Amino acid sequence: MKTKYFKKSEAERAFFLHLRKRVYEKLEGKSTSHGDFKFWFKGVFWIAVCYFSYSLLFFNSLSKINFWLLYVVFQLAGLLIGFSFGHDASHNTAFKNKKWNGVLHFFSFLTVGIDPLLWGLRHIRSHHLYANVEGSDIDIDKNPFLRLSPTHPWKPKHRYQAYYAPFVYMFTLLHSVFMSDWVYLFSQEYHWMKKGVSKTELYIRFVLYKVVYFSIVLVFPLLFTDYSWSFIILTYFTASAFTSLVFIIMLVGTHFFDGADYPQPEGEFLEHTWAVHQLYTSCDWDANKSWARFLSGGSNCHAAHHLFPNICHTNYSEINQIIKETTEEYNFPYHHKTLFEMMFSHFRHLNKMGKPD
């Protein structure tokens, strides 16, 4: 990863100091650094849905279509556990105790397949620091199919990427399970990401996690149901594809949207301070809708999350308006759309990136 330095600007610094003051005054008296009742209720709800639907898979009287539907519910609910519990645990905002956050983080990703420790390291040490910065934010790394940033080289196939992108997105989780995790673990290119973490711990947790994950999603259904191995594997791949699309719908447009900034630093220095950088590179969707926060674990309030990652996401509903008003007062951007508008903006962005420079 290329280390960059954020600009020192008194005006931008004054903005963030004022914003922080308003936010913490609004939340005064609340325990914002760990989960409240709403946080635990939501997470436990999705755990119940996930593992109840999973237990029903082993009833012998199930038809194939019912088995497939229950498997999809199991996978989707598992993803929402990750959104509701795992994301906050990675930022140590579920429990006061860091070790308990690590335990929750591990178990919150069990049905998703992405190694939680590796994901957490790259999420905190790369993406949250340098959102949309080529060479510094892993989430914007070049991929062989899509051109997501103007900093990526253009190829003729990109003319059609707005049309084939949904098919690429269907493989998001499978790609992470079978490729990305292994690259992040073994490649020396990402040694900076794993700095300070014992190699032994990384390898043991990785193996343990993958064994438990594949046992849950494939081995147990193969051993303890009467369906053919081909049907079980087909169910696994199709459910993963469907879950990947839901994952992408809620997240991809929060940084890759028409109007997002993709900073190209002059030397080692970025154009803005860290806080203002987050505003130029993030987009909220339906931030004031309770159903959106319930499903996304607060990821729909992306500006709030990037500016205040140490605040539990169930508090975002109280600070979105403060962010909007303060950015207007200081004339900084605050991108907010409905979910449909954000996805439309994302595909408009893909179409724009598909044209030669």
TrEMBL record:
PANTHER family on file: DELTA(5) FATTY ACID DESATURASE C-RELATED, FATTY ACID DESATURASE 2
Protein's recorded name: Linoleoyl-CoA desaturase
CC terms in the record's Gene Ontology section: membrane
Species: Flavobacterium terrigena
Record keywords: Membrane, Transmembrane, Transmembrane helix
InterPro entries with a match to the protein in the record: FA_desaturase_dom, Fatty_acid_desaturase
Record domain Fatty acid desaturase: where: 67-337
UniProt keyword Membrane, yes or no: yes
GO terms (BP aspect): lipid biosynthetic process
Keyword Chaperone (UniProt): no
Molecular function via GO: oxidoreductase activity, acting on paired donors, with oxidation of a pair of donors resulting in the reduction of molecular oxygen to two molecules of water
Transmembrane portions of the chain: 39-59, 65-83, 103-121, 163-185, 206-224, 230-252
Domain of life: Bacteria
